[in-house]
Write a structure and sequence with these properties.
Layout: E1 8-15, E2 21-29, H1 45-54, E3 57-63, E4 66-71
Antiparallel strand pairs: 1-2, 1-4, 3-4
Length: about 70
């Protein structure tokens, strides 16, 4: 019986003066491939989240300033 590893991404963000969500901290457990290049401090949150969702991640926690996504296998 193999061990099942989950891919989890936590993203902390803030809203800038224009209301856009800007990433200010990222933690990756496992892999965020192929979206790693979008998970950068100072980048917009939504393109990164859209990429993760397209690659089988789902939002499991959404609070003000913090989203957690987990890949569904």
């Amino acid at each position: 019986m193999g061990i099942h590893h989950s891919d989890v991404v936590t993203i902390r963000f803030f809203r800038d003066a224009r209301g856009r969500r800007i990433i200010n901290r990222v933690t990756i457990i496992g892999s965020a491939r192929p979206c790693r290049s979008l998970l950068v401090i100072g980048f917009l949150l939504l393109p990164a989240v859209r990429c993760l969702i397209r690659h089988r991640f789902r939002i499991v926690l959404r609070t003000p300033g913090l989203w957690v996504l987990r890949r569904i296998h």
